[in-house]
Amino acid sequence: MTAFALKIIAVVSMLLDHLFKAGLFGQRQLMDWFGLSLGSSYRIVQIIEPLGRLAFPIYAYFIAEGCRHTRSRKKYILRLLAFGVISELPFDIASNVLRQPWYAAFTPFSHMNVFFTLALGALGITLYDLLRGKGKEWPIACLPAAACAIVAELFQTDYFVFGPLMIYAAYFPRTKAARFAAMAGVNALIYLGYYTSWGQNITVNALIYLVASCVPMALLALYNGRRGRNVKWFFYAVYPAHLTLYMLLKLAR
After folding, report:
1. Are 18 and 36 in contact (CB under 8 A)?
2. What is the model's pLDDT at position 225?
3. Distance of alpha carbon 253 from alpha carbon 247, whole angstroms
4. Bridge partners, residue 112, by sequence
5. Which residue among 20, 21, 80, 82 is least enclosed by CB atoms within 10 Å?
6. Is 74 helix (H, G, I), strand (E, B) or coil?
7. Taking the domains of the chain in order of start, what are their residue ranges?
8. For position 110, what pLDDT does the model report?
């Protein structure tokens, strides 16, 4: 399976996930549009919504791949940051960070979009490799990477501290099997820890989401190392473009 095919799966998953988060599709719409009962609509949502969990592990893996193969990590990180800035306002409105219209409560960056998470992960990897290249021992070299993960939590970037950790899990282990195991471990922290009060109340939904979020590792195991169709800018542009569309749909309601 090529990188192009895997990224298309991630895009479809992301579009579906953000439809739910924007409130443009969900249980209420299934009841209103198709006349489904409360129970039936809830069961359908339980099946569809976890599909949105496929996207981030794939994106995290290819950020790690980008760090391995890009000719300029500086330009790579700056590009991620630029698209983060472009995407922030539509992200805030579409994902309900701004509970009121933007002109009444303009408070962006209270929960920052995933491009900032990806940039912090790439920055952490770059700083680690830089220090290791200067002969620093790995515990010292890990400190800037850990700081980037902490910044993700403090600034509330998407996926918080676990976002950079997922990227590190896709980069630092030497073998593919070890990378996938590390990524699955981060998923366990997210869904069985962070989203369930650290195991105090493990719900069926958390288990469903955990299983769904591990499916990308099975798909990534099929990755053949080939790029496939070269449409790099599409995968950058689709994020702010679809968020802008969702934002306009929300404001028009």
Report:
1. no
2. 92
3. 10
4. 157
5. 82
6. helix
7. 56-252
8. 64
Cross-strand bridge partners of residue 157: 112
For residue 45, the one-letter residue type is V
Exposed / middle / buried, residue 175 (Cβ in 10 Å: 0-12, 13-18, 19+): exposed
Sign of CA dihedral 13, 17, 22, 25: positive
3-state DSSP of 151-198: HHHHCCECCCCHHHHHHHHCCCCCCHHHHHHHHHHHHHHHHHHHHHCC
Closest CA to 58 of 247, 231, 240, 216: 216
Alpha helical stretches, state H, the chain: 3-21, 27-34, 38-48, 55-69, 73-94, 114-133, 138-154, 162-169, 176-188, 204-220, 232-252
Burial classification of residue 179, based on how many CB atoms lie within 10 Å of its CB (0-12 exposed, 13-18 middle, 19 or more buried): buried
Query: What is the reported pTM?
Result: 0.91
207 three-state secondary structure: helix
Token pair 């493990």 in the structure block, residue: 202
* 212 close to 54: Cβ distance less than 8 angstroms: yes
Please list the pLDDT of the chain residue by residue as tens digits (253 residues).
999 999 999 999 999 999 988 888 888 888 888 888 888 888 888 888 889 999 999 999 999 999 999 999 999 999 999 999 999 989 988 886 554 444 444 444 568 999 999 999 999 999 999 999 999 999 999 999 999 999 999 998 999 999 999 999 999 999 999 999 999 999 999 888 777 776 677 778 788 888 998 999 999 999 999 999 989 999 999 999 999 999 999 888 7
Nearest to 93 by CA among 115, 79, 81, 110: 110
